[in-house]
Write a structure and sequence with these properties.
Layout (H helix, E strand, L loop, with lengths): L15 H9 L5 H18 L4 H21 L3 H4 L1 H24 L5 H16 L8 H22 L92 H4 L10 H19 L3 H17 L3
Length: about 300
Amino acid sequence: MAAPAAPLPPQFKCLQHHLRTAQEHEKRDSVVAYYCRLYAMQTGMKIDSKSPECRKFLSKLMDQLESLKKQLGDSESITNEVVGNAHMENYALKMFLYADNEDRSGRFHKNMIKSFYTASLLLDAMSVFGALTEENLHYRKYARWKATYIHNCLKNGETPQAGPVGMEGYEDDSEEGGSAFQAPGSPHPSSSTFVPGSMPSNNYTGIQIPPGAHAPANTPAEVPHNTGVESTTVVQPVPQNIPAVDPSVYIATSKGDIRLTPEDFTRAQKYCKYAGSALQYEDVSTAVQNLQKALKLLTTGRE
């Protein structure tokens, strides 16, 4: 699917990276591409839906959405918001965890920077399902701060500090997906701010992610070319820490005086969908945790 024929209006500059992410995921994950475009569409309507150039662009974007929706057919990730939300959250957090693992292991590189930043864009897109949870707001803020901080350090020939050191006081003021952000108190000049839009447009942020690099941490990644690594090298899956199962869940039965509300059933369904989505990525730990939450809710009426 080609990008919109209409040029991106200046008013929608803050959406260019969400649209670029959608374009990158057309073949990799069409559901992600769809929701990134839907976010751009909804946000664009709020910004400017009256000027001729914006209306023309939004019309092209709407055509793309309709075409992609037809291609996806009866995909439950599109027809069911609970499943769609779980799909997007799982994908965004897998990308975040890949970058966070690289960061905490002291492996600082451009692919990791892009993974942090793209995770924040995908969390932006999750707002099509409603307000983000406090946890996801934190992940988005942290990912944007990390992308800026590490980019600045590498650009200035400095070694970044791993983990959340120095994040105090950082405010994420780019709620509509603004691409320029910098951690307050950074010793680097504003010219070093991580601004993907300043990179070549034919190569998002100027960073090439090798196949598999965006994938969950426990998914083997193909070795990128021209890295000096023999092509026979295989990245081994990361061992998973499977949480201990609470023995009480095996014998838990719903008591007669437990009255579950429609909201309880909805939340239980959400946890089950999250578990199913996690299993698509062979993430046993996340699947077990969500199934335990669903079972506890259904048998006790409490989370």
